[in-house]
Amino acid sequence: MEYSTILTLCSFSFLAGFIDAIIGGGGLIQTPAILFTLPQYSVPTLIGTTKIPSLSGSLMGAFQYSRRVAVAGRFIGPMMAIAFGASWLGAWTLTRVPNSFMKPFALVILVAVFIYTLTQKSFGQVSHRIVTAQQQRLRMWVMGAIIGFYDGFFGPGTGSFLILGFITLIGFDFLKASAHAKLVNAATNLSCVLFFANKGLILYSFAFPMALANLSGAFLGARLAILKGNRFIRVFFLLVIAATILRFAWDLLT
């Protein structure tokens, strides 16, 4: 039974890594899968377990993108450090206060994002500079703090929010935004892994096989995104945002 359970979780983790590498949102697949498959464990333990496969997928996606997409090296390192610390703070906060109020809040934001992206055909199709270098630095650091905290405290949609921020606030196209989002998401995932591991809230017998599957999916997803380009990623972005909206709406109504 345990082998069949691991195989099931690995299948979902592969799909999560594939989608997450393209546009984010893999947690919408991986997290419900492990919560449904292993109901005998506590929710913090299961969430902690998913962070190792999420980290492996983020690292693979970041590696694939960085080989083909120019990265804002001067700014992304400090942004990753800020996101790392903010994610740890978010995870710590989660152990002390409930996060149930986040779903309605995130749902409203996601609906607005979906409508805007759908109506603006040129959104994220080309990279253009909309701010000075100093403004870019400040915006990236603030974004790292806010979204990093969100990832540790709540999580779903983090990759999509990062991509949205890089496009609207910095002026990146979808491909470049995805590349930078993977780097920041790797930092937030690493922070969560260290936090949950320190608390003894990771099931390693499930986490490591899932990590291998997630990494494989991320490899294929990133390669496909790089091959197909911005239009393909835009379609995936809309699909993932729509799925996230439906998921949050279902949770609120049931």
From TrEMBL:
InterPro entries in the cross-refs: TM_pro_TauE-like (IPR002781), TSUP (IPR052017)
Keywords: Cell membrane, Membrane, Transmembrane, Transmembrane helix, Transport
Membrane topology category: Multi-pass membrane protein
Compartment list: Cell membrane
Gene Ontology, cellular component aspect: plasma membrane
ATP-binding listed as a keyword: no
Keyword Membrane: yes
Residue spans crossing the bilayer: 45-63, 75-95, 101-119, 140-172, 201-220, 232-250
Domain of life: Bacteria
Major site of localization recorded for this protein: membrane
Family affiliation: Belongs to the 4-toluene sulfonate uptake permease (TSUP) (TC 2.A.102) family.
This protein's name: Probable membrane transporter protein
Native organism: Spirosoma foliorum
